[in-house]
Amino acid sequence: MRLFNTIRIQTPESIELEFTLAGIGNRALALLIDYIILNLSLLSLLILTFFVVYSLAFDNVVLGFDLDSQWVIAGMALVIYGLYVGYFVGFETLWQGQTPGKRLVKIRVIRDNAQPIGLFQATLRSLLRPVDDILFIGFLFILLGEKEKRLGDWLANTLVVQAENPNAVTRLNIPQGSQTLAQQLLAREDISRMLPDDFAIVREYLQRRSKMKIAARTKLATQLAERVQEILGMEERPLKVDVDHFLEAVYLAYQQQSRGK
Q1: Mean pLDDT score, 145-152
Q2: Local structure of residue 189 (DSSP, 8 states)
Q3: Which class for 125: exposed (0-12), middle (13-18), buried (19 or more C-beta within 10 A)?
Q4: Domain ranges in the chain?
């Protein structure tokens, strides 16, 4: 019996990947950490608001709040709401589906097709968060649903999965030429621009290529190589390097770069 549920997803490249769902405990712990950070930030804003309002009232020698102080309170209320929503939107968009809490717990948000989430998905999830928090509605959806989705996940077409550790993956037999190319890629390219999902797709292809028909294998390898080149910002592959050797080198370079973090 597995401690965590798993789910298989077919990517746009027609490669099937298996992910381990985050689990209700990990998600609750990550949310607790995020709320602690968020509430400390909100408390700082409230303290700042109090001192600003008090200063305005004192300057006008009036006990109570005047028009200026009311504008300050209204403005700070908007800032507080923006911080509540923007905290999750900003981090999940810029941190590849993670917030500080999710990063500490090692879970992240992805789309239903295994692609990284963007601003649109992160915004939908954040806007539905207050609804999910009311009467533990989100908790019940996660607990009872097969895919462990809260309302925000259903609306945004997202999943919360465990962040994969690429160093724990079974090693592949990589030719020496590809190992040399991997060192060149590490020196010349920013491999960190690749997401864990990108690495997983490359790895899945390398593991299954021997069972593919030649035509399908060549087509898929070319598509993957072009996608990786686009991610890394490479105009072209190194001369006289076929797509398989290039993908092998990318696989090794990503592992070595992750191991060195």
Answers
A1: 91
A2: S
A3: buried
A4: 6-162, 167-259
